[in-house]
Design goal:
The chain has 318 residues and is an alpha/beta fold. It has helices at 9-13, 20-33, 60-70, 87-97, 115-123, 140-153, 169-179, 197-206, 228-234, 242-250, 261-268, 276-286, 290-297, 308-317, and strands at residues 2-7, 37-40, 75-80, 101-107, 127-133, 158-161, 186-189, 211-214.
Length: 318
């Protein structure tokens, strides 16, 4: 099953400025092409819009309402990081608006932070997945232990994110083979820092992964994600209309992400790909090298949602 994150991970690529027109056009495409699931929202998920992380052009509620108006067969998914999203302000609203799948995410060593959110959603009989971000930055044993916690809270599937684009195919194979022992569906989310997102996604599928995150033309944070249009030709999903995907890709207005030297460096130091714009902005503000800044950031174990610390570190270096 392919989960299209063009309207969520792709939000990073345009500083979270998704417009109503973009959402409508993409929802119509997903319905027409037979895409199973579409994810929408700020790049860092529900409740993440802020001056420090980046303000969305449209609120979470508005984006979900627009999507639900045009989605009939395609399921709607949202990304949730506890600490950014709250149950009363964000999750209850999403439930009321008819969101189908809730993906509760934490750093790969902090699954315990998802307990309250996962258990709450299961008590509401909602489909909820556990998501382990930055999964390349811990050992396989720890990854399995943290995934097990999410399962014990009620997660119905586990997605591992290669948020830094650091994996090689053999790394993905080892992790998926281990996580399969949980006896719930396992998914993979790739980034293209080393141009291995497709190879890693194929390795995940061959190892038994059931959910693969993709975006149209790889549109996503940093150097982008696993491209939908390539995956459906290398590993066919009979429910997806290939020709309609290709036609949409030809007319896709957003610039296709490319791997740049900064993306290779963030991959080496296992940093969240969404940090790229903030790193470059901080370097310009404080007139320092991004190489120096990235090396220093790598010593602080920052995770998504901690973008403000990039500027603190840059100022200290200056």
């Amino acid at each position: 099953m392919y989960n299209d994150l063009t309207l969520r991970d792709g939000s990073h690529a345009i500083a979270h400025q998704l417009t109503e027109e973009m959402i409508i056009e993409h929802c119509k495409f997903c319905e027409d092409a037979g895409i199973d699931t579409l994810e929408i929202g700020h790049g860092n998920g529900l409740g993440a819009s802020s001056i420090l992380i980046g303000e969305s052009l449209l609120s979470d509620v508005v984006m979900i309402k627009i999507a639900k108006k045009y989605l009939k067969k395609t399921k709607l998914s949202v990304h949730i990081i506890p600490g950014l999203a709250t149950i009363s302000r964000d999750i209850d609203s999403a439930i009321e608006l008819g969101v189908d799948i809730f993906r509760i995410a934490s750093h790969c060593t902090e699954a315990s932070l998802t307990k309250t959110h996962i258990e709450y959603l299961r008590s509401k009989n909602k489909t909820v997945y556990g998501v382990l971000m930055m999964s390349a930055s811990c050992s396989i044993d720890i990854l399995y232990e943290e995934a097990s916690k999410m399962k014990s809270y009620g997660a119905m599937a586990i997605i591992i994110m290669d948020s830094s684009g650091s994996y090689l195919p053999k790394d993905v194979t080892e992790r998926i083979n281990t996580l399969k022992n949980l006896d719930i569906p396992i998914g993979f989310h790739g980034h293209n820092n080393l141009y291995l997102a497709v190879a890693n996604s194929l390795a995940a599928i061959e190892s038994g992964a059931k959910i693969i995150d993709v975006t149209v033309r790889g549109f996503g944070a940093g150097p982008g994600n696993t491209p939908l249009e390539i995956m459906i030709f290398l590993h066919e999903d009979k429910l997806i209309d290939k020709n309609k995907v290709l036609e949409y890709c030809d007319n896709f207005k957003m610039q296709t992400p490319l791997c740049k030297p900064i993306n290779i460096l963030t991959s080496k130091y296992k940093l969240f790909g969404g940090f790229e714009k903030h790193i470059l902005k901080a370097c310009e503000k404080y007139n320092i090298s991004y190489i120096t800044l990235i090396e220093e950031i790598s010593k602080h174990s920052l995770t998504a949602g901690q973008e403000d610390f990039i500027y603190v570190i840059a100022e200290t270096l200056k």
